[in-house]
C-alpha cells in the first residue's frame, strides 16, 4: 500500500513540533523512510511541502534540515495570530453553518466540563479543535490554512502554560461561540482578540532553555510514530 505524501508530511511535521527532531538537525530521506515505514518518494514530497511551510530548509552539502527560527520570527507569529484569529472569528459569525455551530457548542460544553474537573490534557486538545473549527467556519480555505500553520509553528516554538483559571478560559470560548451563533461579527472579533492576547501571554519561548531541551530529549526517547497505520491523522 502506497502511503500518501500528505500523511507522511503530517507525521514529520508532528514530530518536528513535538521536538523529536532538533532545530538545525539533518532530515535524511533514508532515515525518515525507515522511521515511518514508507518509501523515499513520499518523504521527498513531504520535505518539499514542509520547506514551503517553513519547518524545513535545504542547506548546501547538508540537504534537508529542520529550520532554526529566530526570536524575531517567533514573535512575528504571535503578532500574526493576534491579527488573523479575530478576523477568522468575525468571518465565522457571517459564514458559519449549522454544523459548525453544533461542533463549536459541543466543544464548549466538553471544555467547560473538563475545566471543572481539572483535566488539563483534554483542555488543550479541545481548545485546539475549537479554534480549528472556528477557522473552518470562516468559509475561507486560505485563512483556515494560514491559521492552522500558525498554530503548528507556535506549538513548535513556544511552551504553553495552562490558563490560571480554566473555567473562566472556557467561558471565553462560550462567549465567542454565542457571538458567532448570533451573527455578531464585531463582538466575535473583539472577544477573540482579547482571548488571543491572553493566550499569547501564557507562552514561553523554547529557545535556549536547558529545561526545555531536556523535555525534547525525553520526547525523542519515547517517540514512536509509524505512518502506515489506519489510525493516522490527516
TrEMBL record:
One Pfam family this sequence matches: FCD
Assigned keywords, A-Z: DNA-binding, Transcription, Transcription regulation
UniProt key word Transcription: yes
HTH gntR-type domain: residues covered: 2-69
PANTHER family: GLUCONATE OPERON TRANSCRIPTIONAL REPRESSOR, TRANSCRIPTIONAL REGULATOR, GNTR FAMILY
Name used for this protein in its record: GntR family transcriptional regulator
Organism field: Streptomyces griseoincarnatus
Amino acid at each position: 500500500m502506497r502511503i500518501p505524501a500528505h500523511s507522511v508530511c503530517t507525521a514529520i511535521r508532528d514530530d518536528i513540533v513535538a521536538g523529536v527532531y532538533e532545530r538545525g538537525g539533518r532530515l535524511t530521506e533514508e532515515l525518515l523512510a525507515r522511521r515511518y515505514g514508507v518509501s523515499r518518494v513520499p518523504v521527498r514530497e513531504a520535505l518539499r511541502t514542509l520547506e514551503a511551510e517553513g519547518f524545513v530548509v535545504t542547506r548546501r552539502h547538508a540537504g534537508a534540515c529542520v529550520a532554526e527560527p529566530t526570536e524575531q520570527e517567533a514573535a512575528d507569529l504571535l503578532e500574526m495570530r493576534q491579527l488573523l484569529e479575530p478576523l477568522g472569528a468575525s468571518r465565522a459569525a457571517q459564514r458559519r453553518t449549522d454544523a459548525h455551530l453544533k461542533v463549536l457548542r459541543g466543544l464548549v460544553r466538553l471544555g467547560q466540563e473538563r475545566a471543572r474537573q481539572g483535566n488539563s490534557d483534554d483542555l488543550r486538545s479541545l481548545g485546539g479543535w475549537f479554534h480549528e473549527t472556528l477557522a473552518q467556519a470562516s468559509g475561507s480555505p486560505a485563512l483556515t490554512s494560514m491559521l492552522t500553520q500558525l498554530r503548528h509553528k507556535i506549538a513548535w516554538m513556544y511552551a504553553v502554560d495552562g490558563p490560571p483559571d480554566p473555567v473562566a478560559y472556557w467561558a471565553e470560548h462560550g462567549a465567542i461561540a454565542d457571538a458567532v451563533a448570533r451573527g455578531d461579527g464585531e463582538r466575535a472579533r473583539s472577544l477573540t482578540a482579547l482571548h488571543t492576547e491572553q493566550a499569547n501571554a501564557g507562552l514561553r519561548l523554547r529557545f535556549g532553555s536547558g529545561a526545555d531541551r531536556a523535555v525534547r530529549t525525553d520526547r525523542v526517547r519515547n517517540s514512536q510514530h509509524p505512518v502506515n497505520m489506519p489510525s493516522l491523522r490527516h
